[in-house]
Amino acid sequence: MNEPSAPPANPVATSDLQELLAHAQRPWWRRASTLLALLLLLAIGAGIWFWQTQATKQAAPQYITQPVARGRLAVTVNATGTLQPTRSVAVGSELSGTVARVLVDVNDVVKKGQLLVELDRAKLSDAVNSARAELQAARARREQAAATQQETRARLARLEEAARLSGGRLPAATELDSARAAATRAAADLAAAEANVAQASASLSSSQTNLAKSSIRSPIDGVVLARNVESGNAVAASLQAVTLFTLAEDLRSMKLSVNVDEADVAQLRVGQHARFTVAAQPGREYPATVTRVAFGSTTTDNVVTYTTDLDVDNSDLSLRPGMTANAVIATVEHDGVLLVPNSALRFTPTDGAGGGAAQTGGSSFVSKLIPRPPRVPRRAGTTEGSAASGTEGTLWVLRDGKPVALKVKRGLTDGRRTEVRGEGLAEGLAVIVDQAAMAK
Predict the structure, then answer these.
(1) CB burial class (10 A; 0-12, 13-18, 19+) of residue 429?
(2) How far apart are CA 251 and CA 85, in angstroms?
(3) Beta partners for 254?
(4) Going by C-beta distance under 8 Å and a sequence separation of 6 or more, which residues neighbour residue 424?
């Protein structure tokens, strides 16, 4: 009897079984799960390394630097004032009357002696003619008095001669005395006539002077700045001379008068250089020189100031009288010196830089949790940059990424920059002026 045959094997099941047996026989380091785990660990390690690197960079202090510069430094005094002509003249009239003609106007250039305005001359001419007639009358009276004197002298001479020849018998003594008195009176009358002639001559001269003054002329070479008269105006000069024109001498040279505060006036000297600006010429600076520092003070609203005059060159006539100017006067100047910002002299590294405080990396976990006391800001008046000239200071420079102290001597300062000198200093050397805040 035949036995039944076995069913045929499933090919898919056989293949899976073979792969499972082959996988079970591979080493562990060649398995896919092991490779995936290794790749995952490498990715985590790379992430941790990148995070630590960025944290280290952020924790490192960042410094702001500026180079040492060579240049000119000046201590200055600021003041405000107005431009004025070097010499200005107010032309007026000493006489009262009516203006007949006005011959010049504002901005006209005039010469010394040039006719500016004329007053009505009718009354003045009449006064001259009257004075001239009076002088002629006085001269006639003088001639008459002279003739009388000559007559009385001749009569007196005859009587005296008769008395001498007659031995005093003739003429009578009374007649002789009368002749002598008449001669004396004639001499007095002549003297009075001479005085009247002099008085009439003076009156004529005064009338002629008034007539000449009716033609008002320029006393200087200059420019007409202001005109305060028109033809037909009545001029009344009973109390004081009336100002008709204001003339300025050559405007190519002007004067700037500024008010200097009492705290700064001790620094000013004649001959110091200055520069100033005016609103009419924005962006342009004009040179000037101190010519006078007043000893007398001016008090306005309890503020004491001293007037200081500066000589200004105005060759191009771009400046005009009355302009307001802001002047900067250089009291002390040093040229070709090494300069650093005052912030560089105030800077002190913190958070472990330069050994000032504990290193950030070495701080404990507890110290990170305890807040630090706030930094006390320095007052502007106590900064190192404003210290006296010749005192020592400290600059910080970067070497191998770390701040290093450099001892220097301070010189002149203008409040923003300070002159420094010392070993190791050179133009272009980068000095630290500030430290950027570190990331928390």
Answers:
(1) middle
(2) 6
(3) 85, 312
(4) 406
What is d(CA 97, CA 321) in angstroms, rounded to the nearest whole number? 31
State pLDDT tens for residues 178-205.
Answer: 999 999 999 999 999 999 999 999 999 9
Q: How far is CA 341 from CA 255, 262, 399, 400, in A?
A: 36, 28, 20, 23
Q: How far apart are CA 368 and CA 366, in angstroms?
A: 5
How many Å apart are CA 351 and CA 241, to the nearest integer?
79
Q: Which residues pair with 420 in a beta bridge?
A: 410
**342 phi-psi bin (left φ>0, alpha ψ -120 to 50, beta other):** alpha
- CA within 13 Å, CB half, 98: 6
Q: Which two tokens stand for residue 255?
A: 């004067």
Contact (CB, 8 A) for 249 and 86: yes
Give the Å distances, CA to CA, from 87 to 80, 249, 373: 20, 5, 65
Alpha-carbon distances of 97 from 204, 239, 341, 422, rounded to whole Å: 19, 14, 70, 79
The pTM score is 0.58
Phi, psi of 331 (to 5 degrees): -85, -35
Over the stretch 309-336, which tens digit does the pLDDT of each residue have? 999 999 999 999 999 999 999 988 888 8
- Which H or E run contains 66? strand 62-67
Closest CA to 435 of 325, 328, 360: 360
User: C-alpha dihedral over 11, 16, 19, 23, to 10 degrees?
Assistant: -160
Give the end-to-end CA distance of the chain in Å, rounded to a whole number.
Answer: 94
Query: Which tokens sit at 180?
Result: 């002598």
